[in-house]
C-alpha cells in the first residue's frame, strides 16, 4: 500500500484509525487473503463493484488494504443523526437513500450520484455495494442499476478514458464470527468507454448489459450457491475442503488467494450435481456431522492427528506465561466489547462490524491510558506491556486455539470408530473431482 496517499482523504479519521484497524483486523481474523490488490489502481477513477456480506467489515477491508483514498457508499438512515453523519464522513462513508429506509424522492440520490462523479473526477476509488443490501448467503444478488448510471453519468460529464468498474468479491467462511477467514478477490476491470457507444444508441439496453457483466464478473470471484436450499450443505462441504489443507499460521495477511479457487470449484461442482446425487450427499453429510458431534470432535481434528503432537504440547507449555499475560491485559477490552455487542446487535450481519468498531475505539483509549499511566508513574514495565499489548493479545488467542486443537485431536485419536468416520468423510469427497 502507498501510505503517502492516505492524507489525500477528506475524512480525518480515515488516516488516524488506519494503522489501528490493521492491528484490529489481524486479531479479529485468523487469515486474510488478498488477490490482485493492485487491481484497484491508485490515482485512477475506479468504481468498485462489490458484494456485501457484512455491514462495515467489507468497506474497511477496502480502506486499509487498497491504495487510498477509498470512499464507500452506505445506507442513508445511519446519517440521520448529526453525530453519526460526522463520524461516517470522517471515515470516507457517504449515504445512499433507499425507499426501504423511509426515503422518498429521487433528489437525494441525484446528489449522491453527483458526489460520486465529483470524487471520480479526482481520480480516487468509490465503492458501490451493487446488491443494495448486506447478506451472509453465499450467492451474488442481481446488481441495482445505480452503478451503471453513475458510470455513464461520470463519463458523459468528464470523458475520462480510464474510468473503470472493478469487481471485488468479499468471501467469508462464516461472516458472523471472529477468527474467521476472509478472501478479498479483485477481478478484471470493465472499461466504461467500451459501453459508451451502446449507451448513446440505447441507454436502457447499455445499462442492463453493464449490470449483467458486473454480475457475471462478481460470480466468478465470489462463493456462489445457486439454490438457497443448498446453503447448509455448501457450508459443510466448504469446511471439508478447507480442512484438507489448513493454512499456515503466519503471516496473517497473504497477497494471494490460493485456497479460494478449489473452494470455488467445489461450489461450482455442487451447483451442477444432479438432484438425486445432491440428495444423497445431503444424507451422508447429515450422518457424518451428526456422528462427529456425538463423538465430541471436529472434522479438522479427525483428519489432522498431528495437532496432538508432543511438539504442540511443549509449545503450549512454553507460551503459557505470555498467553496468560495477554489474556489478563486484554480482559477489560474483551469483556466490554462482547457486552456491548450482545446488547446492541440485532442482525448477525452487524456482529463482526460492531466488534471491529468498538474494539478500535476502546483499544485506542485503553492504549492511551496505559501510556499515560506509564509516563506518570515512571514504571518502564507499564510502557513495555502497553506497547506489546497487541502481540500479547494475539499470543493469547493463538494459545487458546492451539490448546483446543490439541485437545480435540487427542480425543479423535482415541475414538474407536475413527476409521469409520474417515471412511464416511472420504465417501462425501468422492462426489467431486480431485483438485
Cα gyration radius (Å): 24 Å
General shape: flat
CATH H-level superfamily title of the largest domain = Glycerol-3-phosphate (1)-acyltransferase
In what range is the share of β-strand residues? 5-15%
Tell me, rounded to a whole number, the average pLDDT: 90
Largest sheet entry: 9 strands, mixed
CATH architecture of the largest domain: 3-Layer(aba) Sandwich
Order of helices and strands: HHEEHEHEHEHEEEHHHEHHHHHHH
- Uncertain residue ranges: none
Total number of strands: 9
Structural class: alpha/beta
User: Would you state the CATH class of the largest domain?
Assistant: Alpha Beta
Q: How many angstroms separate the termini?
A: 33 Å
CATH fold-level label of the largest domain: Glycerol-3-phosphate (1)-acyltransferase
Tally of DSSP helical segments: 16
**Fraction of residues in H or I helices:** 55-70%
How many domains, in number, for the residues? 3
Amino acid at each position: 500500500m502507498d501510505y503517502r496517499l492516505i492524507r489525500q482523504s477528506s475524512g480525518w479519521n480515515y488516516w488516524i484509525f488506519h494503522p489501528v484497524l490493521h492491528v484490529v483486523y489481524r486479531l479479529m481474523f485468523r487469515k486474510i487473503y488478498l488477490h490482485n490488490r493492485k487491481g484497484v489502481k491508485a490515482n485512477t477513477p475506479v468504481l468498485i463493484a462489490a458484494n456485501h456480506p457484512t455491514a462495515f467489515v467489507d468497506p474497511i477491508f477496502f480502506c486499509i488494504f487498497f491504495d487510498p483514498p477509498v470512499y464507500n457508499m452506505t445506507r442513508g438512515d445511519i446519517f440521520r443523526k448529526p453525530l453519526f453523519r460526522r463520524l461516517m464522513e470522517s471515515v470516507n462513508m457517504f449515504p445512499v437513500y433507499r425507499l426501504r429506509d423511509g426515503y422518498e424522492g429521487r433528489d437525494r440520490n441525484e446528489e449522491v450520484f453527483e458526489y460520486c462523479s465529483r470524487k471520480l473526477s479526482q481520480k480516487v476509488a468509490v465503492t458501490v455495494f451493487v446488491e443494495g443490501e448486506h447478506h451472509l448467503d453465499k450467492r451474488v444478488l442481481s446488481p441495482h442499476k445505480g452503478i451503471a448510471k453513475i458510470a455513464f453519468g461520470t463519463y458523459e460529464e468528464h470523458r475520462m478514458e480510464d474510468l473503470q468498474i472493478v469487481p471485488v468479491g468479499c468471501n467469508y467462511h462464516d461472516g458472523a464470527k471472529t477468527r474467521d477467514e476472509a478472501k478479498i478477490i479483485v477481478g478484471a476491470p470493465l472499461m466504461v468507454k467500451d459501453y459508451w457507444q451502446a449507451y448513446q444508441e440505447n441507454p436502457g439496453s447499455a445499462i442492463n448489459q453493464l449490470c449483467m457483466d458486473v454480475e457475471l464478473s462478481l460470480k466468478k470471484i465470489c462463493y456462489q450457491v445457486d439454490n438457497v436450499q443448498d446453503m447448509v450443505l455448501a457450508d459443510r462441504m466448504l469446511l471439508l475442503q478447507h480442512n484438507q489443507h489448513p493454512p499456515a499460521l503466519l503471516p496473517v495477511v497473504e497477497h494471494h488467494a490460493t485456497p479460494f479457487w478449489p473452494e470455488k470449484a467445489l461450489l461450482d461442482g455442487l451447483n451442477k450435481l444432479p438432484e438425486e446425487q445432491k440428495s444423497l450427499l445431503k444424507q451422508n453429510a447429515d450422518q457424518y456431522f451428526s456422528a462427529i458431534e456425538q463423538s465430541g470432535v471436529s472434522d479438522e481434528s479427525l483428519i489432522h492427528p498431528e495437532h496432538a503432537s508432543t511438539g504442540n504440547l511443549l509449545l503450549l507449555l512454553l507460551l503459557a506465561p505470555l498467553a496468560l499475560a495477554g489474556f489478563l491485559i486484554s480482559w477489560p477490552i474483551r469483556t466490554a466489547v462482547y457486552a456491548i455487542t450482545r446488547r446492541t446487535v440485532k442482525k448477525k450481519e452487524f456482529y463482526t462490524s460492531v466488534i471491529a468498531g468498538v474494539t478500535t475505539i476502546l483499544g485506542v483509549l485503553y492504549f492511551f491510558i496505559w501510556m499515560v499511566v506509564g509516563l506518570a508513574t515512571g514504571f518502564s514495565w507499564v510502557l513495555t506491556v502497553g506497547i506489546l499489548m497487541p502481540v500479547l493479545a494475539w499470543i493469547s488467542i493463538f494459545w487458546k486455539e492451539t490448546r483446543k486443537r490439541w485437545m480435540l485431536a487427542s480425543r479423535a485419536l482415541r475414538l474407536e470408530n475413527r476409521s469409520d468416520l474417515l471412511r464416511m468423510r472420504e465417501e462425501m469427497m468422492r462426489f467431486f473431482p480431485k483438485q
